[in-house]
Amino acid sequence: MRKTPMSEQIRIYCYPLGSFIDVPEKPKRIVSLVSGLTEALFEIGYGAQVVGVSSYCSRYVPNLSAPVVGDYLVVDEGQIKKLEPDLVLTTTGVQRGLGKKLSEHGFPIYAFPLPNSLHGVLENVITLGGLVDEMDSARALTQRWRRVFLDLAAGAPSPRPRVYAECWFGKHVRMVGGFTFINDLLEAAGCENIFANQRQGYLKLDLDETRRRRPDLMILFTEPEYPVDANELLQQRGWQGVPVIESNVTRGVNLIHDGPSMMETAAWLQRRVIAKRN
């Protein structure tokens, strides 16, 4: 890894990894393995310093030219080493192990916590701005983000439709609870998440409980690696007639993406919700 004189470094404690990290005052060679953070770096005007990304980042940053060094869980350490990064960005959850391994191998890792709410998303943006000395730009982005969500909430349909959100992470299906930023996205779009009172982000599938809560609308997120036919799924469950809005990994319609294009997603979802009610 490229060495920066100590006089030009700052020392930051990374709570998710339980260790300090020394980073330059202005990092010049960033590898980002988190698509939401990659998008945020470009949004705050720091994209030119991104020298390596995950295979998912190009979905959210148009014309991204930085080389791909891996995906969310598996990376080419040799390729990362050749890029001589002075900062590598990861997150927690299932990526915690990767971040810890890379840190143990000498890479300058900062792991961001998975956000449990919109507030957590915005906190990560502020932290990112602090790491790259772009606090003003980061704060401006978070303020715009809040305004967009507040404006959308003010234009929400009344009464709000009771919504059941289901996410397919490959073959693993989960219901959206209240302990995730997706719940805040749903609320901003004018929806009432039927599982908002559950103290988990993602719940195991419970079709009987879902029926008992009587949703007006279903939102279905799927990934291209494991496509799900919405109509066939509804027919299998005997839910014919339940309106469904389909979400995928495309920028501006991705329910699970926590980058700045979440603002586009919330606006898109509100338009779709209103259209389904009319």
Question: What keywords describe this structure?
Answer:
single chain, 278 residues, alpha/beta, Rossmann fold, six-stranded mixed sheet, five-stranded parallel sheet, globular
Characterize the structure shown:
By secondary structure, this protein is α/β, with parallel strands linked by helices. The chain has 2 domains: about 110 residues, Rossmann fold (3-Layer(aba) Sandwich), CATH 3.40.50.1980; about 120 residues, Rossmann fold (3-Layer(aba) Sandwich). It is built from 9 helices and 13 strands. The strands form 3 sheets. Strands 8, 9, 10, 11, 12 and 13 form a 6-stranded mixed β-sheet that branches. Strand 1 and strand 2 form a beta hairpin. The N and C termini lie far apart (about 55 Å). The model has no long low-confidence stretch (mean pLDDT about 95).
